[in-house]
Automatic annotation (TrEMBL):
DUF1468 domain residues: 9-146
InterPro entries: DUF1468
Chain coiled-coil ranges: none
UniProt KW keywords: Membrane, Transmembrane, Transmembrane helix
Domain of life: Bacteria
Transmembrane domains' residue ranges: 40-58, 78-107, 119-137
Name the record gives this protein: Tripartite tricarboxylate transporter TctB family protein
Length: 152
């Protein structure tokens, strides 16, 4: 039953979709809206179920070359784990330090870690990008982002 990689991945995605749909059906509903906030997450969850089922029944015609390309070198696995750690640290520090400070640090150090060595350009981008996003969200879209330690 689980002979091909497509079937294994589809079952993992199906389990993920089931968990996701359970969580979206537990979202609170609002009485005064015609389209509730949970419509898009439910649609995405059912779309994931649909594509998981389609993937399960797709005939796997993988060549030996494609199988060899699937092997990830150990150095790249370490890089992926390091970036995942940075993302988790970003999530942990977002409420504490605020959106602008944490995003600036994340963009700077993640770019540096991934090999971008122009520090001045990296510093300018890592400061301007979160400030522009913060102003866009708070001033134009009226969506609050975590302030953290900064006074604005």
């Amino acid at each position: 039953m689980l002979g091909t990689m497509n079937r294994k991945i589809s079952l993992i995605l199906l389990a993920l979709a089931a968990f996701y749909l359970i969580m979206t059906y537990n979202l609170p509903s609002y009485t005064y809206t015609e389209i509730d906030a949970d419509m898009v997450p439910k649609g995405l969850g059912w779309l994931l179920v649909f594509f998981s089922v389609v993937l399960f029944f797709i005939k796997d015609s993988e060549t030996e070359e494609q199988r060899e390309r699937r092997n990830i070198p150990k150095k790249e696995i370490i890089t992926l784990l390091a970036v995942t750690g940075m993302i988790l640290l970003y999530i942990f520090l977002l409420e504490i330090l605020g959106f602008v400070a944490v995003t600036a640090l994340f963009v700077f150090f993640c770019s540096w870690f991934l090999g971008y060595k122009k520090f001045i350009t990296n510093a300018i981008v890592s400061i301007v990008f979160p400030v522009v996003l913060y102003m866009l969200f708070t001033q134009f879209l009226r969506i609050e982002l975590p302030q953290g330690i900064l006074p604005f």
